[in-house]
């Protein structure tokens, strides 16, 4: 019997297959470097072995410029809960396009969207923006404006967009990063171009570490405006909050006059109809939504308690933006909330989630791989770790080579997962079916058989 290849060799082989299947992508990538900086439209599209250029999407499928078909579990980095070309979203966008795509004045669709979000997330007052970054930026501004304090707390390993205050300790994985101790992480700039003075205003704690938050508050009495976190951490695979963690966090922050903001940019609508707020039962002071709520159109929403939003209503904090509540985005959002993300759709997704989890767990057990499946609602991932991951430091130990190899096997087998290995998760859409999930599990079985110990 031939000797089994090692993981590095398997990755090389799969990358070769990947590149061979996509000559037109390679050609376009070569051309693009002369007009698009780095040959892509966002830096996270520069993925190994080469960016995949897409032609179109339909239903649960994506098609690349070489004509390859994929089951789309990438979901446009967590956006495509509706799938592609969903009739309700298409009809809403078409109808609005014919009636005007921009006014910078309120429309009735905005009212309908706000009422729906009110019902789903349990916060009374809403505003809109255009990206997750804008939503979390407004949340941070609001917490500072309301409390008159400058410091904020964020969680090590959480990504909240690319504004200065949260570009801190996003993924400090290089040995050169001065991460500091796990129970008192240092504030590590996540990008160039951010003044140290701003980074120093962001204090960092580990996920699920309530005592660390207490210490930060004790060490800075009367100086912390609030804390922003993903209630279910989604930029480190998926990390669930310990029972009681979020409720205790809210009480602790409030006891010190500080606020709690949930970044539900990834979890909103995808973790369940009321996002992670609905799943965990803890309602914060501020919720940030984006990605899936627009059915593929750029939009974000910021919800707040009456006390928080009073500062917006009375002009104390000016929450502004030319495109905020844009009618095209609001029309897409309304269709998404009323016709796509319905109770029936969530029931269907739950069945598919269970099918995926059972299939993957069966293959993990059969192959003896050190791996576990973590999933919530339409989102999930395989974490290549023998032990549960509770925070970013645990996540650092997860073997990324397995995640990358898995991504390649899926891709070459016609399933598009998000690149960036262990960081990302799958997203199912309301248009996925059992055959899509079976293709995904089938590819996992092929991968597991190839890399098993
Ligand atoms: C949790 C979270 N918050 C905020 C953002 C930023 O959103 P956007 O890319 O729309 O600015 C992201 C983007 O991936 C995210 O995952």
Number of domains: 2
Given the helix and strand composition, which structural class is it? Answer: alpha/beta
As residue ranges, the low-confidence spans are none
The termini sit apart by 16 Å
Task: Give a verbal description of the structure.
The longest helix has 25 residues, at 343-367. Helix 8 runs parallel beside helix 9 (245-255), helix 13 packs parallel to helix 16 and helix 15 (400-412) crosses helix 16 (434-451). The relative contact order is 0.16. The two termini are 16 Å apart. The mean pLDDT is 96. The protein is globular. It is built from 16 helices and 14 strands. The chain is α/β, with parallel strands linked by helices and 453 residues long. The protein has 2 domains: 7-81 and 342-451, Aspartate Aminotransferase, domain 1, CATH 3.90.1150.10; 87-340, Type I PLP-dependent aspartate aminotransferase-like (Major domain) (Aspartate Aminotransferase, domain 2), CATH 3.40.640. It is 41% helix and 13% strand. The strands form 3 sheets. A 7-stranded mixed sheet has the order 4-10-9-8-7-5-6, with helices on both faces. Strands 1-2-3-13 form a 4-stranded mixed sheet. The structure holds pyridoxal-5'-phosphate. Pyridoxal-5'-phosphate (PLP) binds at residues 77, 131-133, 136, 159-161, 230, 234-235, 263, 265-266, 290.
Short description:
Helices cover 41% and strands 13% of the residues. The protein has helices at residues 7-20, 23-32, 75-78, 87-99, 108-121, 132-147, 196-199, 210-219, 245-255, 275-280, 306-313, 327-340, 343-367, 392-396, 400-412, 434-451, and strands spanning 54-58, 61-64, 69-72, 125-129, 151-155, 202-205, 224-229, 259-263, 286-289, 300-304, 372-376, 379-383, 415-416, 426-427.
């Amino acid at each position: 019997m031939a000797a089994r290849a090692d993981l590095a060799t398997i990755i090389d082989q799969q990358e070769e297959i990947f590149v061979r299947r996509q000559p037109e992508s390679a050609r376009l990538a070569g051309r693009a470097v002369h007009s698009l900086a780095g040959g892509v439209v966002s830096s996270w599209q520069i993925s190994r072995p080469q960016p995949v250029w897409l032609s179109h999407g339909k239903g649960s499928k994506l098609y690349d410029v070489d004509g390859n078909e994929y089951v789309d579990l990438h979901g446009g980095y967590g956006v495509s809960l509706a799938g592609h070309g969903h009739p309700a979203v298409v009809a809403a966008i078409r109808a609005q396009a014919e009636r005007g795509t921009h006014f910078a004045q309120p429309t009735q669709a905005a009212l309908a969207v706000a009422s729906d979000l009110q019902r789903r997330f349990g916060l009374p007052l809403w505003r809109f923006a255009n990206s997750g970054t804008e939503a979390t930026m407004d949340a941070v501004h609001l917490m500072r404006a309301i409390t008159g304090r400058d410091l904020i707390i964020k969680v090590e390993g959480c990504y909240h967009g690319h504004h200065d205050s949260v570009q801190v300790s996003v993924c400090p994985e290089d040995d050169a990063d001065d991460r500091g101790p796990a129970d008192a992480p240092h504030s590590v700039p996540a990008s160039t171009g951010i003044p140290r003075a701003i980074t120093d205003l962001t204090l960092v704690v580990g996920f699920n570490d309530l005592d660390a938050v207490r210490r930060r508050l004790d060490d800075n009495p009367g100086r912390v405006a609030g804390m922003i976190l993903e209630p279910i951490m989604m930029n480190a695979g998926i990390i669930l909050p310990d029972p009681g963690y979020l409720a205790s966090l809210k009480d602790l922050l409030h006891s010190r006059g500080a606020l709690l903001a949930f970044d539900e940019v990834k979890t909103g609508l995808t973790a369940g109809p009321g996002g992670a707020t609905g799943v965990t039962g803890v309602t914060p002071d501020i919720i940030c939504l984006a990605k899936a709520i627009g059915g593929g159109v750029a939009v974000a929403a910021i919800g707040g308690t009456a006390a928080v939003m009073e500062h917006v209503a009375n002009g104390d904090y000016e929450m502004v933006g030319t495109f905020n509540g844009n009618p095209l985005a609001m029309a897409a959002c309304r269709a998404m909330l009323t016709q796509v993300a319905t109770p029936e759709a969530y029931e269907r997704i739950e069945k598919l989630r269970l099918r995926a989890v059972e299939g993957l767990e069966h293959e993990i057990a059969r192959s003896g791989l050190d791996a576990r499946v973590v999933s919530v609602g339409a989102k999930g991932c395989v974490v290549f770790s023998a032990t549960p991951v509770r925070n970013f430091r645990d996540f650092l130990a997860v073997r990324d080579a397995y995640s990358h190899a898995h991504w390649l096997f899926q891709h070459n087998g016609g399933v598009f997962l998000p690149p960036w290995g262990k960081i990302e998760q799958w997203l199912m859409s309301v248009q996925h079916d059992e055959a899509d999930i079976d293709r995904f599990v089938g590819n996992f079985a092929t991968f597991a058989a190839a890399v098993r110990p």
